[in-house]
Structure formats: structure tokens, C-alpha cells
Design brief:
The complex is a heterodimer of chains A (153) and B (534).
Chain A (H helix, E strand, L loop, with lengths): L6 H14 L16 H9 L3 H22 L8 H12 L7 H11 L3 H6 L23 H4 L9
Chain B lengths: L4 E7 L3 H10 L6 E4 L17 H4 L8 H4 L8 E4 L31 H5 L9 H15 L23 H14 L4 E2 L38 H6 L3 E3 L3 E7 L5 E7 L5 E11 L2 H10 L26 E7 L15 E3 L15 E5 L5 H10 L9 H8 L3 E8 L8 E9 L5 E6 L4 H20 L4 E5 L36 E3 L14 H17 L7
Parallel strand pairs in B: 1-2, 1-8, 2-5, 3-14, 8-16
Antiparallel strand pairs in B: 4-10, 6-7, 7-8, 9-12, 9-15, 10-11, 11-12, 13-14
Classes of the chains: A mainly alpha (153), B alpha/beta (534).
């Protein structure tokens, strides 16, 4: 099963995602929308029809609210207006489900670009795994000196 | 319907079923195991893919209610503050477990005699010790000899790496003068019986593609199959049937297509875990056993024990490399394990150090604790948490209480129409007091290790990993379901070998003891083959 947002919905949602996780001040990390997370959401939402419906509804009502308040579509708003409209929308009955945040955070933090910016290799943990330095087991010396802790029976 | 009557029919291929099958295979009897799940393909485990942390929330979630795979059955656990976790496949829940592998303490088998609570087991630590040793070799247990919290014991492989995170926490324990020790772990730290060593990938809880973690599909089952045991997957057992004389004579199961089939057997062995086993027994009603099979005591499903868990996470200033290393296994502390009534509760608990969170889990954990805002503050908040968290869990001993129980749900059922289990469970005052004490001590040790902040969750809601007590063993048929070697008091060719038969829960992960018991029961059966039903 596949799912695609309409072009208008995708454009508005990308702006929403950039407000959820914006680009970092130092420019090392891109915003979630700029990173292309809409595509990730489309794949994830293909398996989640109820959540998908709520998010599509959320995008449409958010854009409608932007037009109502400013005569401009959501993607055409300046940063402050976007935040204002998003806050009003979040307080309404049409707000996005919490799943949008979960999917956005989850998708963003396994993106290769983000992993590299965090100083990690952009790869799955297996099969390579991670090197760990040898341990200093002399840390156990005070424990070794203790009498037995278990009860005989 | 199969015309063949097998000698021994095992229901369930997890920790207990696998160990039992391997041990009994040397008898060359005709042994068949029915498993409702399928073989897992380790190359498809999430750890091989970038989105592995997200899949932990979906098709590899601990809870069958979230996962909803075809082979899962729903569990109505609304009536419990602790949700049931399990996995259904060849290997059972060992596919997803952390592979923490401590033994019980000698005192765990004598709670009534020593502390005046619960009941004594009908066997003791020393009876099980040789089977713990066999299990250590078969599963490939890593650890370090000399732990003052235990009698001397066999540990075949060197301990898992402590890493920077483990060493940091160990120093905290040392500052307080508290016990700690590298965890006994069913994780191969060097090549063991054809299994590759751990590469510290940190994905243990979604299956181990490396094969370093000892799930029974790769430990006990290959040699058991080579010795002639048959394992049939996608077979969901609905009920155990009985002959007119009151002996078990086989099972009715649903195959992969949902078609109802029958398998006849001379001996039936149940290994479906502390929830699945009472579910099956209670669903096996007949004229001879109107309240469910092996339930003349009325104890099938009662005395359900989880381990009430707390999770306390420390936030540190320095990076800890916490995404490296086996997820659940690092170091363990049993400073507060044995009873000290001055603490305000009886029995005790263990601390188990976890690793830190991966990149996505950091964000989602922060979100769930109000520490991960969206918007302008997001990246600062993330940098404060990523690779700066060290988790520890507290595992409290749960005491048996008759009202904590598994029954059959009158409405909910699985995809084959078999009634689902319903859980009724509440935390006792003793458990509540123990949780409070343990969380305060956990904060203390994390702060001693240098944590600038701690966050705790108690009880941990999705921590119903350990399912025990619902068909307990004992010598008195009025007060137990099976005897001291797992044979039903009521049905003399019916055996139960999983965590259901635990009399008490101890304060450690139960898998090692479940398997030691299964090996012990298999051995006892072998010694008594001539008069098995007398």
C-alpha cells in the first residue's frame, strides 16, 4: 500500500516539520521538512490509515486557518506568523495527533545526514557494531574484599 | 488429524520448551513440539536497518497487543498497571529478551522459612545448581567468577564490556560502598559453539542478527533437531484433550491456515509461559475437568507474579558512549537483595544498569518526559540528552497473591477464536514500599556517579516481561498445581515446565531458572521413565 500527500499538502507539511525541528543555529543540522521527512511520513502513514486521516485533516485545517487569519497560505507566511497560526491550531479541535511528533522525531534521528552531524557513522548498528575499549576491572577490588552477601540455606 | 501418537508432545518452543526438548532427545523417544510462531530470520532483524529504533515501537514491540503479528494473541491487561510482554516464535521471548542471566539466590527457595512470607519451593538451590551449569554452557553465559552475592558458580565466557558508561556507574557504587558486579549475560563475548561474538551493536531487544545473544532458536534447537526432535511451527494449540480415564491424550490445534487439527500423545508438556500456560489449561475444560485441566486446587491462573520494575535514568554532563554495548546487560547490584526488615519491606531487589539511548530513542524518551520540545529550543534540549543518559532498572521481588491472576476473557479472542487471557493484578503494599526505597537508592547512586539530574518511572508500565507463578509447584495437591518435578497432581502424564511453576519470583530475571528447572524436570523424567505415571 502506498500513500502520497497532494503537492499543496506536502508543501504545507514540510513547513510544519521545519517548525517542529528547525535547522540548528550553526547550520549543521537541517530542519525536518528541509531534510525531506515528508517522504518518510508518507511511507509510515501508508500503514496507519487512522493517523494518516488525522494528519491530512490537520494540514488542511492549518492552511485554512492561515488563509483566514492572514489571507496567505501557510507556506507563504513568515516565521512569526507560522508559529502564531500553529499555536492557535494546536489549541483547536483540529490539532495534529501526537503521533506526528513521534514520527517526526523518530524519522529525523535515523536520517544519515543527522547521524553524521551527531558524530555517528551513518549506518545501521549491524553488522559492524562498535569498538569498546578494554575495561579496568580493578574497579571491583573493593567489592571483592567484601564478605559474602547471600544467605546460606 | 495426525494418526501418529507421539511419545512426548511439547507445547511451546521458547526458553523452557527448547531446553527440555534438547535434554529429553537423548531418550530417542518420538518427541514433537508445536509452536504457534515461526522461525525468525536473523538477517531481517531491525538492527540491520537504519530505522531499527522505530521498529521497536511497531512489529518488534514487546507487547503482543501493539505488535499484532498473525502469531500473536491479544492479552487483556487493562486490569493491571503492568502490561504483559512476550514474543511468539521459535525461541519465544528469548528473541527479544535482554539476556540478563542471573541465578536465583539460595534464599529465594526458602522465603517462608527465612522471612515468613510466601512459600518454600519443594526443591533448593543446590538441586538446581548442576542444571544452571549445563544451561550456562548451552546458552553461553558470560560473566565473572567471584561475585560475593552468590555461591561459587560456573561462568564459561568473559563478561560483557562495561564501557565508559558502566565504569562511570561502577565508580558511583564504589563511592557509596555498595555491591556491584558485571552482569551474568547469555551473550557470547567470544566465539561459542559456532556463535559469533557480540559486536556491541546495542540492538539486543529487537533480536540479535550476529547470533551472539542466546535465543533458543540458535542454542538448544539446532542440536535438539539433530537428535531427532520434531518441531512444527504455526500450530496454535487450543486445548489439551483427556481420555475417559482422565489422562491427557493429545491436543487440538489450529494450523497456519486456521484449520483445526488433532495430535495424539502419551505425554503432554506445557511450556507456554506464565500467561499462555494457564490460558491453555483453563481453556481445556471437559466433563472430568470442568474448571480447566489440572485445576482441582483452583490455583491455575492464580498467584501471578511479574517483577515490579522501576526505571531511573541519570543525565550526565559528559558523553558516556551509551549507545555501545549490549542494551540490557552491563553491571548489576544486589546491595539490597536479601531481607532487612528495617527497610520497611520484606525480601529485596536488584539494580541492573542499562546502556544509554540511541539517537531516535533519545528524542522519543525526551519527548515522553517533557524534555524534548519542538521549535527553537529543540536542538539545545537534544544536545543536553544525547549520549548523556545512563539508565538503570530496579527489579523488585513480587510476592504471590491469589487475587493476582490470569482468567479467560469472555469477549476477547485471538484470530482462531481462542479466548484471550485477562489479567487482574495489583501491586502489594510490600511492592510499593520496595519500589519507593529502590527509586530513592537509585537516585542516590546515579548522583554519586555524577548525574546532574534523574528521571524515574515506577512502576514501569511495559515491564511485564517475567510471567510466573500461575501453576505453581509443591508437594501438597491442595496448594499447588504440579509436584516437585513438574508433573500435574491431577493428570499424571501432564507436565508444566515454564515460569508458571515458580513458587516465588526472586528479584532477578527468571530465564536462567526457567531453563534450569526444565532441564531438571527432563532429567527427572528420564530417571523415572519406567514408572513415570505412578
Amino acid at each position: 500500500m502506498t500513500f502520497r500527500f497532494s503537492d499543496e499538502e506536502a508543501r504545507a507539511l514540510a513547513c510544519v516539520l521545519d517548525e517542529i525541528i528547525p535547522a540548528s543555529d550553526d547550520g549543521r543540522l537541517r530542519g525536518a521538512g528541509e531534510l525531506g521527512l515528508v517522504g518518510y511520513l508518507e511511507t509510515a502513514l501508508a500503514r496507519m490509515p487512522e493517523v494518516r486521516e488525522m494528519i491530512v485533516h490537520g494540514v488542511r485545517t492549518l492552511d485554512a486557518l492561515a488563509v483566514e487569519r492572514t489571507s496567505l497560505h501557510f507556506p507563504d507566511l513568515g516565521r512569526d506568523d507560522r508559529v502564531r497560526v500553529m499555536n492557535e491550531h494546536a489549541a483547536s479541535e483540529h490539532s495534529f495527533p501526537p503521533t506526528l511528533l513521534i514520527l517526526t522525531y523518530g524519522g529525523y534521528y535515523h536520517d544519515d545526514h543527522v547521524l553524521e552531524a551527531l558524530g555517528m557513522e551513518p549506518r545501521p548498528p549491524h553488522p559492524k557494531g562498535y569498538e569498546m575499549a578494554p575495561d579496568d576491572l580493578s574497579l571491583l577490588d573493593p567489592v571483592r574484599r567484601r564478605p559474602k552477601l547471600y544467605r546460606d540455606c | 488429524m495426525s494418526d501418529e501418537t507421539v511419545d512426548v508432545l511439547i507445547v511451546g518452543s521458547g526458553a523452557a520448551g527448547a531446553a527440555f526438548a534438547w535434554s529429553l532427545a537423548e531418550t530417542r523417544m518420538n518427541i514433537l513440539c508445536l509452536e504457534q510462531g515461526d522461525w525468525m530470520d536473523p538477517s531481517s532483524y531491525p538492527g540491520m536497518q537504519g530505522d531499527w529504533e522505530i521498529r521497536q515501537l511497531g512489529d518488534f514491540h514487546f507487547s503482543p497487543n501493539v505488535r499484532q503479528r498473525r502469531e500473536d494473541y491479544p492479552v487483556n491487561d487493562i486490569g493491571s498497571p503492568i502490561a504483559v510482554s512476550m514474543f511468539n516464535a521459535v525461541g519465544g521471548s528469548t528473541i527479544l529478551y535482554a539476556a540478563h542471566f542471573p541465578r536465583f539466590h539460595p534464599a529465594d527457595f526458602r522465603a517462608r522459612t527465612l522471612d515468613g512470607v510466601a512459600d518454600d519451593w519443594p526443591l533448593d538451590y543446590w538441586r538446581l545448581a548442576p542444571y544452571y551449569d549445563v544451561n550456562a554452557r548451552m546458552m553461553g553465559v558470560s560473566g565473572l567468577a567471584g561475585d560475593p552475592a552468590y555461591p561459587p558458580k560456573e561462568v564459561p565466557l568473559p563478561p560483557v564490556a562495561l564501557g565508559k558508561l558502566g565504569a562511570t556507574l561502577a565508580k558511583g557504587f564504589n563511592r557509596l560502598g555498595w555491591h556491584w558486579w558485571p552482569s551474568d549475560s547469555a551473550i557470547a563475548t567470544r566465539e561459542h559453539e559456532g556463535r559469533a561474538p557480540c559486536v556491541n551493536a546495542g540492538t539486543c531487544l529487537v533480536g540479535c542478527p550476529q547470533g551472539a545473544k542466546a535465543s533458543t532458536d540458535i542454542t538448544y534447537w539446532p542440536p535438539a533437531l539433530r537428535k531427532g526432535v520434531k518441531l512444527q511451527t504455526r500450530c496454535r494449540v487450543r486445548e489439551i484433550t483427556v481420555s475417559p480415564t482422565g489422562m491427557a491424550d493429545g491436543v487440538i490445534y489450529h494450523d497456519a491456515e486456521g484449520v483445526e487439527r488433532r495430535q495424539k500423545a502419551h505425554v503432554v508438556v506445557v511450556a507456554c509461559n506464565g500467561i499462555g500456560t494457564p490460558r491453555l489449561l483453563l481453556n481445556s475444560r471437559s466433563k472430568l475437568f470442568p474448571d480447566g485441566l489440572a485445576n482441582r486446587s483452583g490455583l491455575v491462573g492464580r498467584n501471578l507474579m511479574f517483577h515490579p520494575y522501576a526505571m531511573v535514568t541519570g543525565i550526565f554532563d559528559e558523553p558516556l558512549e551509551g549507545y555501545k554495548g549490549p542494551t540490557g546487560c552491563c553491571i548489576m547490584s544486589q546491595e539490597f537483595y536479601e531481607t532487612d526488615a528495617s527497610r520497611g519491606f520484606l525480601r529485596g531487589y536488584s539494580f541492573e544498569m542499562l546502556r544509554g539511548f540511541g539517537p531516535a530513542s533519545t528524542a522519543l524518551w525526551g519527548l515522553s518526559h517533557g524534555r524534548m520540545p519542538s521549535g527553537a529550543e529543540h536542538h539545545r534540549a537534544y544536545a543536553d540528552l544525547f549520549d548523556r543518559t545512563a539508565g538503570m532498572v530496579v527489579i523488585c521481588e513480587d510476592l504471590p497473591e491469589a487475587d493476582n491472576r490470569v482468567t479467560l476473557d469472555p469477549e476477547l479472542s485471538d484470530s482462531d477464536g481462542i479466548p484471550a487471557p485477562r489479567i487482574t493484578y495489583r501491586l502489594s503494599e510490600n511492592s510499593e514500599a520496595m519500589l519507593r526505597h529502590s527509586v530513592a537508592r537509585a537516585r542516590e547512586v546515579l548522583e554519586a556517579a555524577g548525574a546532574r539530574d534523574t528521571i524515574d518511572v515506577a512502576p514501569l508500565p511495559f515491564a511485564g516481561w517475567h510471567l510466573m507463578g500461575t501453576a505453581r509447584m509443591g508437594t501438597d495437591p491442595e496448594r499447588s498445581v504440579v509436584n516437585e518435578w513438574g508433573r500435574s497432581h491431577d493428570v499424571r502424564n501432564l507436565f508444566i515446565i515454564d515460569g508458571s511453576i515458580f513458587v516465588t519470583a526472586a528479584a532477578v530475571n527468571p530465564t536462567n531458572t526457567i531453563q534450569a528447572l526444565a532441564l531438571y524436570i527432563a532429567d527427572t523424567m528420564k530417571k523415572n521413565l519406567a514408572n513415570l505415571f505412578e
